[in-house]
Amino acid sequence: MIDPxxxxxxxxxxxxxxxxxxxxxxxxxxxxxxxxxxQIRSALKFYKVLAYLTGGMLLLLCAELVxxxxxxxxxxxxxxxxxxxxxxxxxxxxxxxxxxLGGVNLxxxxxxxxGWMYVVYLMSNFRLWSLMRWPFxxxxxxxxxxxxxxxxxxxxxxxxxxxEAELAANPQASKxx
Length: 177
What we know:
Blueprint: H1 37-71, E1 73-77, E2 80-81, E3 90-94, E4 100-101, E5 104-105, H2 106-132, H3 136-144, H4 151-169
Antiparallel strand pairs: 1-3, 1-5, 2-4
Helix pairs in contact: 1-2, 1-4, 2-3
């Protein structure tokens, strides 16, 4: 025979051990990190450096795109001025028709460098996110920092403070050994 059970189960009273910790949102769960405090701090520093570098390159990329599409100019270094035949040092030149022959198109270099830097930035995001065991939505916000101008600076400041607060509030959560 099956014993009937009441529809509403009695809830145990919350004690200090069963209260939700900061950032957990679930009663009775202790906060655990995916690594030691040293690993988390290392990932945080790596993320911080890449957030500023990627954010700076993104701003440079935006300035280059405005110069290209609003004014029809590329940033060149070296080469020969196509109109006068004089050596070209460093600066903006016409995109169409080509204003500089030879030389290095720094506009394209900015695109390439930002693209690869963003890939490394995503790896730093994933490392920090996985060590902190955050929800997936935070990874998306971290990733958007590298594609929305100025966002990486604000996101970095917010998440840096959040990591520091979680590490301080949960000193035993990172003890693995």
